[in-house]
Amino acid sequence: MDFLMFGAFIVSLLLLLIAGVPVAVSLGIVGIVGGALLISPAMIDQLSQIAFTQSSSFVLIVAPLFVLMSEIISSSSIGTRLFTVVQMWLGRLPGALGMAAVISCSGFAAICGSSPVTAATIGKVAIPEMSKIGYSERLALGATAAGGTLGILIPPSIALILYGVITETSIGDLFIAGIIPGIMTAILLCFTIFVIVLKNPSLAPAVQEKVRMKERVTGLIHVTPILILAFLVIGSIYIGMTTPTESAAFGVVGALVIVFTMRQLGLKNLSTVLSNTVKTTGMFFLLVIGGMFTSFVLTRLRIPQGMAEFILGLEVPGWAIIVIINVLILILGMFLDPMSILVIVVPIFFPTVVGLGFDPIWFGILVTINMEIGAITPPVGFNLFVLKSVIPNVKMSDVVVGSLWFVVPLLASLIIIGIFPKIALYLPSLMS
Fold it and tell me: Which ranges carry the TRAP C4-dicarboxylate transport system permease DctM subunit domain (predicted)?
């Protein structure tokens, strides 16, 4: 019976999505109608209380603050400066500019929190530079799209914030847990570029221009603000000086100081920044509320609990269940955006994962890497469409094919962290 009701919910949701109804609204409709029909019409009063309680939660203040910080930073030339400096230090390594794009995305991710914003900001400067010296368009686009996915793994991360809210897991611990996996994933992406170019040097001609050591050292001055801001946001959480919400507030102030010092935030830009922040925050809150509606109804119907009991009763190892869950999320990632996956899938599978004795922080990192893979896999890979929009003269087929090369290192990262949970849990363990 549990599976039949769950199937009815999923089919109803899919029909609404196919009809073009926004994800947040679809979740809300399924929750309200399902609750009224299967529980009681009076339950709608409880849903209104859930909406008010969730949207006024102090914990959720962290989301608009990090979104605002991200918008402020992306309105400046910090991404351009970061790529230029990394490019100078990598010099004539095989695939240097491709690796520079990935490393720049990693650095930008530490002050951003959004995968599409990271890909777009670095892509606008990195892809033209690679094309200028004769890089394969597919390699240039794929490296940047894959590097952009680090925006939701390396903290601060909007995806990890939403996961923390849904599962009531410490957002600070999730942020810290993402650091080592994020660095490891960046290294795997760079290694992939190195191997591809080593096998076929024509894909990425070496940079001919020589850069003196003095220029490299001087260039570091331009990225100092990024390092300071990243430490201010993440370092303050790690040493226990601030909560994630307080660090987000510090991050906004730090970002404002940086862009005002650079004289790159006029009244017109500020208006755009605030407008984008409101739009993104509104979408975030609607997804949370819609997801909570559906989650509340499913929980009242004991569907997640029933599924968890059924799965826990199966005579299969726990790791096999985790593999199945990850495969399902990977498949869904091809058709849904990351935030939708979180609000739809996580509330259903989370009780099972906890019941099997797995760490919720570790599971959060696995889910995030799954969403990274989804961001560069068709037909609904967000980063693919973002890069196509910022570099309109490229073919969509080149964006897709170039990105598929980098699914392998992302899968490798998922498998490694799945087998060795300590990679994600080491830094949080030091905090406790």
Answer: 10-423
